[in-house]
Design brief:
Layout: H1 3-6, H2 9-25, H3 30-38, H4 57-70, H5 72-93, H6 100-107, E1 112-115, E2 131-134, E3 140-149, E4 157-164, E5 172-179, E6 185-187, E7 202-211, E8 216-221, H7 228-262, H8 275-304, H9 312-338, H10 348-356, H11 366-378
Parallel strand pairs: 1-4
Antiparallel strand pairs: 2-3, 3-7, 4-5, 5-8, 6-7
Length: 396
């Protein structure tokens, strides 16, 4: 099976035709989700014997790039489901079948979402402000606030985590999946953002939400560590997220080409023959060409189990940073090529300009990326060294 067997031209056109309406109405992509589910998109990582596509990480990257050219917010939201499936796939490749049920669920139509991000939690996966209190029977009660919970109107399984401080000498982070309808989970209707509006990434409040022992999947230490489960989350999140924003950049180049071919110069000639316009379009295409091989190489290395050791985290965060920043700059170039028409509310480039800005808010942050890469090349700053610029954030 090929990528285009699932994301057919007809399907992509339907998705593209709805994107502006979802954005205008700040509404969830209900029809898109139904189409994608029917096409088997939720089961891209699920094995063929389970009814899935059996795709590799590289093939799913291709899918997400292509989907984002048509409907960025839809792609971003579905990305969160695919990350959990990708973690299950990556662990299975390493001989760990503990999340095999996720791939089976996806093939049956279940929709997984991310309840991980928390306001002010710069440590992301290495600590949590959410409390996870053991109940004495193997279950845990979770209390805290999760933000940017994409797929809020439709998820059927929510991945959450919290901190268990019952042993002060050995605090632990507890991960699990909550079925929709779990008591103590409230979804706020508070998503009204500049861009990526159809994702409906609402705030989720946990108030003594109890997960039973069989709904828990992992415990990890607090602080940086090399647990394969957390590495899987980080690596699939950064890689598939980069694919989405790369797709946005790809579409911006297409729109820049269309604008250049459509517009005329003062003398009546085609703007596509104007040297300044040609330079801008070429420069945008060159920048996007630089992202594609890096994205493909990271996906291939994850699939093949390449050992980059301590450089894995800097490489992954660098990919995310470069992909999102490049896409943002390319969309801006496309706006310049298109001219004033792109400044009108409702134009595709106007929407992409707002959508692509969301890239700067996903982990890893700009500061975290640079700190992580600096540590990789220069080593960590000794604790006793004086802070010369207000200190530096820890790299993830």
């Amino acid at each position: 099976m090929k990528v285009t067997d699932i994301l057919t031209p007809a399907l992509l056109e339907r998705l593209r035709s709805r994107a502006a309406g979802y954005d205008r109405d700040n509404s969830f992509f209900t029809e898109d989700l139904a189409d994608l589910r029917s096409a088997g998109y939720l089961a891209l990582f699920s094995p063929k014997e389970s009814g899935g596509a059996g795709f590799t990480i590289g093939q799913v990257v291709q899918c997400q790039r292509l989907l984002a050219t048509a409907a960025p917010a839809t792609a971003l939201a579905v990305n969160m489901h695919l990350v959990w499936c990708g973690v299950a796939h990556l662990l299975a490749l390493r001989g760990d079948a503990s999340l095999a049920f996720v791939l089976d669920d996806a093939a049956k139509g279940e929709l997984y979402a991310f309840g991980v991000s928390e306001p002010g939690n710069a440590a992301v996966l290495f600590d949590s402000f959410t409390s996870a209190r053991p109940q004495g029977d193997g279950s845990y009660a979770f209390t805290g606030t999760k933000i940017f919970t994409s797929l809020s109107p439709a998820w059927t399984r929510l991945g959450i985590f919290g901190r268990d401080d019952s042993d002060p000498a050995d605090p632990r982070l507890v991960f699990g999946f909550a079925p929709r309808g779990t008591a103590g989970i409230t979804i706020r209707d508070d998503w009204n953002t500049m861009g990526m509006r159809a994702s409906q990434s609402c705030t989720t409040v946990l108030d003594n939400a109890v997960l039973t022992a069989d709904q828990l999947v992992r415990t990890t230490p607090v602080g940086p560590h090399s647990d394969a489960f957390v590495f899987g989350i980080f690596s699939l999140f950064e890689t598939l997220l980069s694919a989405v924003y790369t797709g946005v950049g790809d579409r911006a180049v297409e729109l820049a080409v269309q604008a250049a071919q459509r517009r005329t110069t003062r003398g009546g000639g085609s703007a596509a023959h104007d040297p300044h316009t040609r330079w801008k379009v070429a420069d945008a295409a060159i920048r996007m060409d630089g992202i594609h091989p890096q994205l493909e190489a990271i996906a291939r290395d994850l699939e093949d189990g390449t050992d980059h050791g301590s450089l894995w985290f800097p490489r992954l965060s660098s990919l995310k940073y470069r992909a999102t920043e490049t896409a943002r700059s390319v969309v801006e170039t496309a706006v310049r090529v298109s001219g004033g028409a792109s400044y009108s509310k409702g134009s595709e480039l106007e929407r992409l300009y707002r959508d692509v800005l969301a890239g700067m808010f996903h982990p890893s942050s700009e500061d975290s990326v640079h700190a992580s890469v600096a540590n990789a090349w220069l080593g960590p700053v000794p604790d006793e060294a004086p802070a010369r610029s207000g200190g530096a954030a820890q790299g993830s």
